[in-house]
Design goal:
This protein has 4 helices and 10 strands; from the N terminus they run αβββββαβαββββα. By secondary structure, it is α+β, with helices and mostly antiparallel strands. The protein has one domain. The protein has an 8-stranded antiparallel sheet. The chain has a two-stranded antiparallel sheet with strand order 9-10. Helix 1 runs antiparallel to helix 4. The longest helix has 29 residues. About 10% of the residues have low confidence. InterPro entries: CHRD. This is CHRD domain-containing protein. Keywords: Membrane, Signal, Transmembrane, Transmembrane helix. It comes from Blastococcus mobilis.
Length: about 190
């Protein structure tokens, strides 16, 4: 009886942990990108310029929270966008980013149609971030997007955290079911003795 009670408690705790972690995992996706002026097409961008970006995409609301940083550029960012095209190709602008936030290195938010946000989240490699300056109107640096590292989930503030709550929840479910099964087996064994 004790094992069955323990199993029920562990299973309830697991459901609580998973229910609080679940919505963030379902609606928000982390995407990242890192690139340089050499990756610009059809013409190369600024020689020593680099761009890095971290994006948290809310696929339900179409909200894209991001931090994009640049280095090695001679001029401030005049414009920045997410474009749609695979690596090595130029593509159309699909999301406008805040150049002032990029120059300041601060977090910002852009809105997109939820269907577009879901498309970027599902296939980030089909999109890239591009930063432009007066001397490089086509772009001084480009970074193709990609899925963030596995186990990384949005923390809700534009940063990422590990998927530890999910791991804990799954472990609690497994322990709870095991304890419940043990309690049932002991109970049946005791009834037949």
């Amino acid at each position: 009886m004790r094992a069955a009670s323990l199993g029920a408690v562990l299973t309830a705790a697991a459901l609580l942990v998973l229910s609080t972690a679940g919505p963030a995992l379902a609606d928000q996706v982390s995407v990242t990108g890192s690139g340089s002026g050499a990756e610009e097409v059809p013409e190369p961008g600024e020689n020593d310029a680099t761009v890095e970006g971290d994006f948290t995409i809310d696929t339900e609301k179409g909200m894209i929270t991001y931090t994009v940083t640049v280095a090695g550029n001679d001029e401030d960012v005049a414009a920045a966008h997410i474009h749609q095209a695979p690596r090595g190709e130029a593509g159309d602008v699909v999301v406008t980013l805040d150049a002032n936030a990029i120059n300041a290195g601060t977090e910002a938010t852009a809105m997109a149609d939820p269907a577009l946000a879901a498309e970027i989240a599902a296939s980030p490699e089909a999109f890239y971030v591009n930063v432009h300056s007066p001397s490089f109107p086509a772009g001084f640096a480009r970074a193709q997007l990609e899925a963030a590292a596995p186990g990384s989930v949005p923390a809700g503030d534009g940063s990422s955290a590990s998927g530890v709550p999910t791991v804990i929840g799954v472990a609690l479910v497994t322990a709870g079911v095991g304890a419940l099964a043990l309690g049932v087996a002991r109970r049946r064994g005791g009834a037949s003795a």
